[in-house]
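Can't attach files on this board, so I'm pasting raw text. These are the components:
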Amino acid sequence: MSFVPAAGFADPVTDANASFRAVLNAMAHPGRLFSITAQPPAPPVLGCGLGSILLALADRDTPLWLSETIAVPEVAGWIGFHTGAQLVGDHRMASFVLFHAQDRLLPLDDFSLGSPEYPDRSATLLIGVERLQEGKGLTLSGPGIESTNRLDIDGIGPEFWQARANLAPLYPLGLDLIFCTQNQVAALPRTTVVEA
Amino acid sequence: MRDGTNGPQAGSSGPSSNAARARWLAILAQAPKQVLKEAWGRLEAKPDYRLIRAPETGLALVRGRIGGVGQRFNIGEMSLCRCSLAVDDGQGGEVAGHGYVAGCDQDHALYVALFDGLMQLPPHGARLESDLIAPQEKTQADAKRQSVETAQASRVEFFTMVRGE
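---
Top answer:
Structure tokens for the assembled complex are below.
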């Protein structure tokens, strides 16, 4: 039998707005957790947190790159059907890059960092994690944080933070990171300083 | 409105079945909703279905060559409704049905998607072909022929007399 995709948002307008608002709030308050209330029946390997964010953000103008563990036909079909976004084989072309914390890490400076004229054309990394917790772990500072903020991100090692810190001198070029579990999201825009 | 048309074309398997499906989708999309509603009411065993994309209304840009010559260009936008659902095939599987219709009648798109799904299932497909698709095809062809004949009958040929001979 041919492929039949799962459904998308139960209430497309409200759920997309709420998911977009959660990402917007997370970007405005780096390291603070926000709830994702929508529960679309996304393929399990993607999870409904990443699924909601994709349904809210991706469209046919945003090429996507999926890590090996996510790039199964079920996910590709679901994303293609509901968002119309193109899946690209070359991760340097992608606007959104999806992977899980446990996936093999690619060199961060290999992703699109934007150009000096258009730094907004950089890639946004959507990273699925098991657990996010405020009040311990990494120390965050920078725009959007009054003094410091603490966030514990499960499964992201020090080499990742080192690679991210190496991009800081390239500002305003850089990468924005969105971490999400099944129902929570936190973001680290390129301006946030992370100390282990 | 987002467009999923570059996603996987569910329920198709080769050029011949695509052509057959395009035929019945065109007939269904142009059939009045009332006809589809009655045909659905006549079905004895209504299959279960689940919505993949609930009926929604949006705009589509229509392009064409208005004068019949030159490059295609934007004519304007039209409203349309679409719906996608999965019809239970009664054997533990399901087939995808898609409906796109002109206008704002979301139920119309739902019925087209339902019948698109049913047409792919052998027991339903043959009966619907004789019960719904073929009669509608004839009705639509007759209506078109009649409107062409009416237009032809009122055609005026303009010509200019050659002067000065």
